[in-house]
Every structure is written in structure tokens, then in C-alpha cells.
Amino acid sequence: MSRPLAKKIRNSLFVLFLFTLRLIIFFIPLRAASAAGALLGRVLSLVLKKERDIIFKNLEIAYPGRYGLREKRRFASDNFANYGITAFEFLKVNTWKPEAIAKLISGAEGIEHLEAAAAEGRGVIAVTGHFANWELMSVYLSLKGFKVGAIGKKLFDDNVDRFVFKARTTTGVRIYDRDRPSFEMIKGLKNGMILGILSDQDTRVESVDADFLGVRAKTPSAPAVLAKKLGLYIMCVGLLRKKTGLYKMTVNRPIGITEDMATEEIASIYNKQLGDFVEAAPAQWVWVHPRYKSTVDYTKIKA
Q: What is the DSSP string of 114-126?
């Protein structure tokens, strides 16, 4: 069997599993779905050794010597539980009305900063990361009356891509392709749109090196470049899950930008604020991503 064919079959089976799981989750309460997702995540933390080792190495890079092997295993279990909750929750709530989805966010500290920008008619780059169920933020803000857009990338399968795209755009949120510059996006920003950009991973986009959790890391430069070029605000936004299962969104005050500030300097500021969100609820961030792969040799890090 050829490699492309094997990949196509594997993706098709995954899509079948995903939609079957969605059907099952549809019939159970949200709290039960979240508990099931957490349990599945903890089981996967024992099975997916490669991904678990990335978590261990990331912890050692960011916090050298802080965690022993037992603590790393417990942390990985909690981290995978977070992924399970997020996935099952996403499959569950995308069948709800947007108003019901938005109610999962029980508080929005600092939203007055976005309201002030909207009153000015000034666009905002909302720098955020993969915190808990980050997808909820755009739904919440759109229902609050803000013009909202987000940058994303095409997923591995067209069916999954359409499924996720529909869930993201149900309240009028505009999704812009990460790999295709859009004049519509620029026009929206000039007319006061909030554009969410996930800036906490090492990807193929234009980047600079800036500290993240105290370690140099490849960091997307688009927030800084767009803000300076178009005269936009940059605000860091985070979403963290509370013990109740509901969420709290935090919008930080705008980053002060001057004409003489270098892109690296601005990126360092939003990296610091994103890092603060991570440290507020460490297990709710995507430690399974090799955040430092461009600046650190992972083969030399002992898991």
C-alpha cells in the first residue's frame, strides 16, 4: 500500500470516528461529556509516549529541575485530561445555539479595553494562545456585538475542516487563511475588527526570537508588524477553565507601542503576557507542542 493511500485511509477512519463520537456525545450532558473526555485524555497520556516525552522535555526546558519524574507524569495526565475535556466539549457545544455556548464564559475581566477600542473605531490584534477551550472566545465576543475575525489554517481533512469552520463562523466570525494574505482582513482591521492570532507555537509563519517562559523561542511576528503598520492596538487575551467547568476570559490592557520599538521587543512583551496566562493554569496549555524546537535541541534534553 502506498504511503499517500495509507494516509488517506487513516484520515478517513479518523473522520468516521470523530463523527461517530460526536453523535454519542450529543446524547449525554455536558458535564458527563467533559468527564469522559478527561478520562480518555488520562488514558492517552499513558499510551502516547512520544507526545508525553515532549511534555516532559518542555517542562525541563522551561523549568529545569523543578519537576521529578513522578510530578511530570502527574502533570502530563492533567494536561492530557485538558485536551480531552476541550475536544469533547467542542464536539458537544457546536450543536448548541451560540447564546448557550457563550454562557460557558462566566466572566470577562478587562473587556472594557475592547469596548474602548470599539468606541474609537480602532482595530485590535487579540494575541492569544491554546489555553483550555480557546475557541469559545470568538463566539462570546461576537455575541457581545464586537466585529471578530481569526487567523487559522486549513486542517488535514476537508470534512473536518468544514466541520470546524462551520462551528467557528456560526456567529459571524470571519476566518482568514494563515497562508493567504487577505485584503478583506486588512479592511476589517481598519474598520475596528478584533483579529485573534494564536501566537504561542513554533510554526512556518514569519517569526522572530523572543523569550517565552524565560527561554528563547520562535514567535509569530504578525501581531507586532500589523499593529505598527496599521496603527492597531495589541491586547493579550486568555481563557482559563475554572473548577466549576465554566470559563473566565481575561483581556489585558493594550501594549504600549512606539514607532521606534523593534518587532522583537513587542513580541517579547506579548510573550511575557502569554506566559503569565500559562503559569496561572499550567495544565491548560498545549505542552504537547515542541514550543522550542527552533531554538533548543530536543535530542539533548533528558525527558
A: HHHHHHHT--EEE
| Domain coverage including residue 49 | 3-95
CA-wise closest residue to 242 among 34, 97, 93: 34
Q: Are residues 166 and 273 in the same domain?
A: yes
- Are 247 and 107 contained in the same domain? yes
Same domain as 255, residue 136: yes
Helices (H), the chain: 3-26, 30-47, 49-62, 69-93, 98-102, 111-120, 136-143, 158-169, 183-190, 222-230, 263-280
> pLDDT of the chain along its 303 residues, tens only?
566 665 566 656 666 766 777 778 878 899 999 999 999 999 999 999 999 999 999 999 999 999 999 999 999 999 999 999 998 988 887 778 888 888 999 999 999 999 999 999 999 999 999 999 998 999 899 989 999 998 876 555 555 556 555 555 565 678 887 777 688 999 999 999 999 999 999 998 899 999 999 999 999 999 999 999 999 999 999 999 999 999 999 999 999 998 899 999 999 999 999 999 999 999 999 999 999 999 999 999 987
Last residue in a domain, options 46, 79, 95? 95
Structural domain tally of the chain?
2
Identify any residues that bridge with 211 across adjacent strands, giving them in sequence order: 216
Beta carbons of 175 and 165 less than 8 angstroms apart: yes
Each as own residue / partner, the long-range contacts of residues 297-302 (CB below 8 Å, 24 or more positions apart, any chain) are 298/54, 298/57, 301/57, 301/60, 301/61, 302/57, 302/60
Separation CA 76–CA 56 (nearest Å): 8
Q: Which of 41, 62, 95 is the last residue of a domain?
A: 95
Say whether both 62 and 116 belong to one domain. Answer: no
Contact (CB, 8 A) for 55 and 75: yes
Q: Using the CB atoms, write b or e for 243-258: b if 16+ within 10 Å.
A: eeeebbbbbbebbebe
